[in-house]
């Protein structure tokens, strides 16, 4: 084993186009999409029959049949069946957390290669039986005599047929993610115009990235879809301005969050390939970037003062300090667009003097970023956001971006920051650097 | 399709059946739909991907097979024909979205130890390039081939190792496969209709068993391969059966057997 940690290399990635829910991938399961995406990665990097160190992925919306999902995907793929795999789940942070786990094992010399990412379907979502019905069914299953079973069957009531459909709401607050984001948007005075501008830029940037072929070696078509079907290349601030609010409606005229500046429910999968430099060289594969460091934070959004999606605001300063960097030392910022307002509130928090002192415990705020470096090939507002797939999408995208740029200011290696907010008041952030 | 079976049943008792194979070649162009593929994949255990499962074109060609066999010009009565062997060659992976040109004809009408056998041959091309071949061998018990020509049946290895998997095959498997394949032969649908044809219960479609076995080798076989199977004892529904797989020199040998050792299917992938 290595005595000092090395840096894991990001070699590339593969994803399927993201599809709006109940559309093109309505018939595809998590396992279908994850296996397809893994096989696409295997084909792209010539890994058929290879035993990798591990494959780590997850899904946020899971059926009970999705038990051991990632291992099942490996067994159905062209990777050697001797490749271990496990599932992780950290809501929207799943894909990036998976990459951190793989990168850390590579850094420690425990493995030489790994795949990280995730998958989600909002179409093929698990629908559970009503909780009262489930209790009766469990009891019937455990009953020993016919009489016991009949007695339990007599307890069934028509109302129990109503199924439990998963909702996009926080168990402890009962508010949807959008409602939480609306509170934060109001708190930071994020304007409707600024949100619509960010959304339009996301569509514009992703469309341009497709046009210049940037996604050619990142995306493999699936079920007839070749591009993310949420992408509106002709999106504009004017068009977005016509949409009515969907979150924070109780704010009346002050409601700012629309279907256009919030991410839609989407289906898809994304994976990134990591390895040691030596492993990449042995397999004649390029090293696009190195995984520098990562940090995870969490906030008390239930009883405390922080918003549900604001944990990255805390994670980034800690990550910067540990690495001796400032927020301005980056060539690219990949801030996951759960909602346009989330990105903008995060940036405002980093610029705020009082917030820096009172909440982050810093002498000075992190300061503004060069907005032309933000989500330069689009982000979740345009591509969509199949929850656990977003991290894999961003890791592969950013690795390619820093690789293309090569060097940044003063001849240093090009560097990028990833920031992903997640349900449960969590945030996962990481730094990649050109190889 | 049920109409064709009914027509064929009537035809079977009428005199005037042809004595040799018709020269008919039936053609059809089809672009498979995601919904049909998804249904088929679910029933047979394949993942829903962009490459068609190797056994899927068989169900696309099947209506043409039935049309050819139900015609008066076909020398053997369709009801009672038993699928005894099947060979599929995938020349290259076929992608969802490609337009497939199908051609079906009959050949090799020959003697079988228990009657006569005939091959229904399907060819699938994309833009003039052959991508897939299928050969389904059917037996007509007690029938006579026009010449003394002895039919060929594949010589398949008998694998007899430990079970790789145990499948619990539910009673509705025949109905579910009928819905995705169009093969509504009553022997597969329910016990009552199966009894009318001499089976104690409904039996699984041979091509379902073949597809389910191939699906179990997902990820382990190349895009281009030949999959050959021989159908043995009918798989009565419902059943619990075992899949046996053995890595061979250039592919896989496999078998599906019941828990008492009776063999339902033997096959090879090369």
From TrEMBL, chain A:
Could you tell me which residue ranges the Thiolase C-terminal domain spans?
A: 287-433
- Report if keyword Phosphoprotein is assigned: no
- Its protein name is Acetyl-CoA acetyltransferase
Report the residue ranges that make up the Thiolase N-terminal domain in this protein.
9-276
A Pfam family annotated for this UniProt entry: Thiolase_C
List the active-site residues: 92, 385, 421
This protein's encoding gene: atoB_4
Instruction: Give any GO molecular function from the UniProt entry.
Output: acyltransferase activity, transferring groups other than amino-acyl groups
Record keywords = Acyltransferase, Transferase
Q: Can you tell me which family this protein belongs to?
A: Belongs to the thiolase-like superfamily. Thiolase family.
Q: Which InterPro entries match?
A: 3-ketoacyl-CoA_Thiolase, Thiolase, Thiolase-like, Thiolase_C, Thiolase_N
Q: Which residues form a coiled coil?
A: none
> Listed GO cellular component terms?
cytosol
Automatic annotation (TrEMBL), chain B:
GO MF entry, a single one: fatty acid synthase activity
* GO CC, alphabetical: fatty acid synthase complex
Q: Which GO terms describe its biological process?
A: fatty acid biosynthetic process
Kindly give the InterPro entries that the UniProt entry links to this protein: Fatty_acid_synthase, HotDog_dom_sf, MaoC-like_dom
Domain MaoC-like: where? 173-247
Q: Which domain of life is it from?
A: Bacteria
Enumerate the Gene3D superfamilies for this protein.
Answer: Hotdog Thioesterase
Sequence similarity: Belongs to the enoyl-CoA hydratase/isomerase family.
Protein name per Swiss-Prot or TrEMBL: MaoC-like domain-containing protein
């Amino acid at each position: 084993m290595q005595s000092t940690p090395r840096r894991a290399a990001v070699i590339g990635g593969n994803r399927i186009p993201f599809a709006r829910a109940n559309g093109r991938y309505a018939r595809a399961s998590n396992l279908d999409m994850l296996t397809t995406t893994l096989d696409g990665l295997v084909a792209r990097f010539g890994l058929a029959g290879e035993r990798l160190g591990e494959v780590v992925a997850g899904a946020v919306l899971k059926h009970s049949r999705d038990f051991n999902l990632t291992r099942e995907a490996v067994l159905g793929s062209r990777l050697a069946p001797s490749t271990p795999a496990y599932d992780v789940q950290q809501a929207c942070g799943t894909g990036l957390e998976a990459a951190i786990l793989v990168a850390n094992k590579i850094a420690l010399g425990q493995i030489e290669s790994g795949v990280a990412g995730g998958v989600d379907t909002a179409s093929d979502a698990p629908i559970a039986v009503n909780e009262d019905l489930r209790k009766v069914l469990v009891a019937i299953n455990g009953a020993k005599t016919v009489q016991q079973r009949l007695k339990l069957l007599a307890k069934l009531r028509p109302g129990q047929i109503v199924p439990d459909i998963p909702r996009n709401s926080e168990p402890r607050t009962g508010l949807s993610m959008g409602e939480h984001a609306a509170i934060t948007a109001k708190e930071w005075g994020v304007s409707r115009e600024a949100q619509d501008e960010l959304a339009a830029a996301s569509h514009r940037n992703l469309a341009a990235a497709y046009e210049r072929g940037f996604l050619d070696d990142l995306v493999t078509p699936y079920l007839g879809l070749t591009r993310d079907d949420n992408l509106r290349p002709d999106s504009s601030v004017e068009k977005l301005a016509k949409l009515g609010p969907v979150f924070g409606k109780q704010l009346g005229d002050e409601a700012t969050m629309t279907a256009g500046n919030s991410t839609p429910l989407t289906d898809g999968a994304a994976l990134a390939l990591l390895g040691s430099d030596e492993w990449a060289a042995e397999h004649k594969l390029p090293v696009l970037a190195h995984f520098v460091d990562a940090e995870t934070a969490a906030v008390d959004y239930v009883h405390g003062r922080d918003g549900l999606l604001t944990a990255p605001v805390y994670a980034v300063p800690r990550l910067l300090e540990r690495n001796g960097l400032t927020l301005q030392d980056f060539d690219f910022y990949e801030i996951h667009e759960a909602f346009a307002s989330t990105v903008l509130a995060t940036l405002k928090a980093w610029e705020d003097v009082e917030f820096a002192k009172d909440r982050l415990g810093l002498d000075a705020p992190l300061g503004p970023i060069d907005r032309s470096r933000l989500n330069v090939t689009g982000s979740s507002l345009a591509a969509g956001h199949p929850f656990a797939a977003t991290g894999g999408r961003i890791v592969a995208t950013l690795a390619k971006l820093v690789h293309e740029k090569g060097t940044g200011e003063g001849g240093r290696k090009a560097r990028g920051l990833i920031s992903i907010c997640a349900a449960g008041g969590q945030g996962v952030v990481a730094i990649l650097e050109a190889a | 399709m049920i109409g064709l079976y009914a027509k064929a049943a009537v035809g079977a008792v009428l005199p005037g059946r042809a004595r040799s194979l018709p020269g008919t070649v039936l053609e059809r162009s089809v672009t498979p739909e995601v919904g049909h593929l998804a249904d088929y994949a679910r029933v047979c255990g394949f993942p829903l991907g962009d490459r068609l499962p190797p056994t899927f074109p068989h169900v696309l060609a099947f209506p043409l097979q039935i049309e050819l066999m139900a015609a008066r010009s076909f020398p053997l009565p369709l009801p009672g024909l038993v699928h005894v062997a099947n060979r599929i060659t995938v020349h290259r992976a076929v992608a969802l979205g490609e337009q497939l040109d199908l051609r079906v004809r009959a050949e090799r009408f020959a003697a079988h130890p228990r009657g006569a056998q005939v091959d229904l041959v399907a060819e699938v091309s994309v833009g003039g390039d052959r991508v897939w071949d299928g050969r389904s061998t059917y037996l007509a018990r007690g029938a006579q081939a026009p010449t003394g020509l002895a039919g060929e049946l594949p010589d398949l290895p008998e694998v007899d190792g430990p079970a790789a998997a145990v499948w619990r095959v539910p009673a509705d498997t025949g109905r579910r496969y009928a819905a995705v394949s169009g093969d509504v032969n009553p022997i597969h649908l329910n016990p009552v209709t199966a009894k009318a044809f001499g089976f104690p219960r409904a039996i699984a479609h041979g091509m379902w068993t073949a597809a389910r076995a191939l699906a179990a080798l997902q990820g382990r076989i190349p895009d281009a391969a030949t999959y050959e199977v021989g159908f043995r004892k009918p798989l009565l529904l419902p059943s619990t059966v075992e899949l046996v797989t053995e890595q061979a020199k250039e592919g896989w040998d496999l078998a599906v057997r019941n828990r008492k050792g009776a063999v339902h299917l033997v096959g090879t992938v090369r």
